[in-house]
Design a protein that fits this description.
Order of helices and strands: HHHHHHEEHEE
Mean pLDDT: 91
CATH architecture of the largest domain: Alpha-Beta Complex
CATH class of the largest domain: Alpha Beta
Number of domains: 2
Strand content: 5-15%
Shape: globular
Number of helices: 7
Low-confidence stretches: none
Amino acid sequence: MNKDEKKQEIKSLRISSLLLEKLRNEAEAGKSSLNSLIVSILEDYENWNRFSSEFHYVSLSSETLRTLIGRLDDKEVISMAKEKGAVFHREIMMYWFKRVDLDSFISYLRLADKYQKIATTTLLKDETANVLTILLHHDLGEKWSLFTEHYFGEAIRVNFPSIQQQVERTSNLVSFKLALN
């Protein structure tokens, strides 16, 4: 956290009594202060909501997503994943982070982990071998693993052509080992 992020200001705002009561109840139920809850809501907006709305993200239950993708054959899953993976992450990196690089890609993965909750992202860096391993763990089954493998694999291939990748997939985990130069 840099100096500007630590600096705080006191602001007042007008909100309805009903909304204030709902926020107080939510803060109490979460064992946090009203101020902490409001700051958390504002950070969520700043970090995810304002950008995700520009890209027309939709909310689906994991069961609905599993059912939808489960009805596609493997060829359709791979085709769709590659098509979207080739362009979507570049657009996101340019729009959200103003640059296309591995740090932006990883930052997006961390945000998606926190806000989309489709997969848990784990990053392992082997400094000696200069390898970054990205583990994406989910509970959406084999078809989602297939989609994830080709979606992120294509994003890495297109945006970082000098990075060699090795992919392993199970029904609930996709592992990308990236050989960094």
